[in-house]
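Good morning,

Attaching, inline, the backbone tokens for the sequence recovery test we're adding to the shared suite. The designed sequence is right after.
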């Protein structure tokens, strides 16, 4: 069906949907974009989603997690906005470098072209040079001939100075693309308790700001705490120049995974198709999605696990991990409660009490030595108490350090990231990283292959020998200590054969003690919950 639709919608008629936001940030443009993408894909169309971020950073790779939340990594090694994680989780389709565009990247490209003389001595300006580069980037995915729809989410809110070049670029693009482009504006209809009524004025002002920029939205998606009655919808439609049918209610949902169903009920996909001149009578296929929701909302068991990390004050710093836990829990029909614990607050004296009543613990990724003692104390307790442990990236490295110190009696065992002068560098800087001076985009990034040891927990989870997972790190297991660790019962069960790098470590006689150098959370989706998270949750349920 998809191939047939691709032939019907040729390269020249790829449909572009631009999603803007007004009134307030954090209204959920990413979730609405992902939900619409899911509905269109369920009708047989090929869909991709991109994010335009207005910050000057080239990418979020060097940004503090407290500033930006999680840095999501794609197969091709792009460090991107966490919204791309939502896109992949909803669509069950990978994203790439082309799916995240930042102002920093736009300006970097334009300046490089200017330095090379590509502009033939002309004065380089916001219009046309910056806007032309934005338009080029937006259309890169459409030009591949792989997608019927390219949904573009514009970060920030309408009226922000930072977003103005993007708004101007898509305004131009709308006229260039004619009937192949459409605008969706996400706005807020607040409920004032004192007046006991919904207020449409913020939405009116938001649309007015968009109109001042030369853009008439085709569809309004209204975030609200109360249902929009026909009177409110009519009022919004009249004052914002949209059809009443195109005023879409977006109520708060108990889980983000309900939003596609709510948007289907509101007819968002139908309005989009009609406005783009497309007829599709194919029934929306959401059987797997509904099965997932059923497992999520009707669990047969309930457990509590711990997540030990450095940035737990902002849970968005571990967004993909928390969503992966939800996917695995739904797959196993188990409600998984997560106790968020700051690594700095855990030590050898309180670790038993801190981890009391937990069925398992994930030790999260991170950078730097802050909280390392807490992570190591946690892992020691889990190892000795036979409680399921799952370590990711620095969590895996912490497990190597803990075992080397307490079993091999290498008291100074450490990572050279934490102590460059350690006498026992069980974790060391990757050889190729030793000459790196620039921090942005220079880590070991993207997908790499890994060969699994038969009979290991990892092999039993994946049920195959060869896997590919995404990475984001500079430091690696030091093979000089591999033999000694394995003789003591700490086994390397996953190896990247190209570089002989250890990717997975396990303790075989433990209920579940698995540490991975890569980031499995980046590849977990609703349709394909990650095998390692499923294996870990299953171990915790026993």
């Amino acid at each position: 069906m998809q191939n047939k639709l691709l032939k019907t919608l040729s390269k020249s008629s790829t449909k572009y949907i631009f999603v803007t936001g007004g009134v307030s940030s954090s209204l959920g443009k990413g979730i609405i974009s992902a939900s619409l993408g899911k509905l269109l894909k369920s009708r047989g169309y090929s869909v991709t989603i991109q994010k335009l971020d207005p910050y000057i950073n080239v990418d979020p790779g060097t940004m503090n997690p407290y500033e930006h939340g999680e840095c999501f990594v794609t197969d091709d090694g792009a460090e991107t906005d966490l919204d791309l994680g939502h896109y992949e989780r909803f669509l069950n389709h990978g994203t790439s470098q082309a799916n995240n565009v930042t102002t920093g990247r736009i300006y970097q490209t334009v300046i490089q072209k200017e330095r090379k003389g590509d502009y033939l001595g002309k004065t380089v300006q916001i219009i046309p040079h910056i806007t032309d580069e934005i338009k080029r980037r937006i259309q890169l995915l459409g030009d591949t001939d792989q997608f019927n729809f390219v949904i573009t989410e514009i970060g920030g809110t309408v009226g922000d100075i930072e977003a103005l070049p993007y708004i101007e670029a898509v305004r131009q693009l709308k006229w260039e693309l004619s009937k192949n482009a459409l605008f969706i504006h996400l706005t807020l209809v607040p409920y004032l308790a004192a007046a006991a009524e919904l207020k449409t004025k913020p939405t009116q002002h938001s649309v007015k700001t968009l109109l001042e920029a030369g853009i008439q939205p085709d569809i309004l998606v209204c975030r609200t705490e109360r249902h929009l009655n026909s009177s409110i919808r009519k009022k919004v439609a009249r004052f914002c120049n949209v059809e009443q049918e195109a005023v879409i209610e977006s109520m708060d949902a108990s889980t983000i995974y309900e939003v596609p169903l709510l948007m289907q009920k509101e007819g968002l996909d139908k309005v989009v198709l009609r406005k783009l001149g497309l007829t599709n009578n194919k029934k929306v296929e959401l059987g797997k999605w509904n099965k997932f929701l059923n497992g999520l909302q009707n669990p047969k068991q309930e457990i509590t696990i711990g997540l030990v990390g450095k940035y737990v004050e902002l849970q968005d710093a571990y967004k993909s991990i928390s969503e992966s836990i939800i996917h695995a829990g739904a797959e196993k029909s188990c409600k998984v409660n997560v106790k968020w614990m700051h690594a700095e607050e855990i030590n050898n004296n309180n670790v038993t009490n801190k981890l009391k009543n937990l069925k398992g613990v994930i030790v999260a990724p991170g950078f730097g030595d802050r909280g390392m003692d807490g992570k190591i104390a946690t892992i020691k307790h889990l190892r000795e108490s036979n409680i399921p442990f799952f370590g990711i990236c620095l969590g895996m490295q912490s497990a190597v350090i803990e075992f080397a110190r307490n079993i091999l009696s290498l008291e100074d065992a450490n990572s050279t990231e934490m102590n460059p002068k350690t006498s026992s560098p069980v974790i060391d800087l990757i050889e190729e990283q030793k000459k790196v001076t620039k921090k942005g985009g220079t880590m070991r990034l993207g997908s790499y292959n890994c060969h699994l040891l038969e009979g290991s927990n990892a092999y039993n989870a994946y049920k195959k020998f060869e896997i590919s997972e995404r990475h984001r790190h500079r430091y690696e297991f030091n093979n000089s200590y591999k033999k000694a660790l394995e003789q003591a019962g700490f086994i390397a069960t996953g190896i990247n054969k190209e570089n002989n790098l250890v990717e997975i470590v396990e303790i075989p006689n433990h209920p579940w003690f698995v540490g991975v150098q890569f980031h499995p959370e980046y590849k977990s989706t609703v349709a394909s919950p990650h095998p390692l998270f499923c294996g870990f949750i299953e171990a915790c349920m026993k």
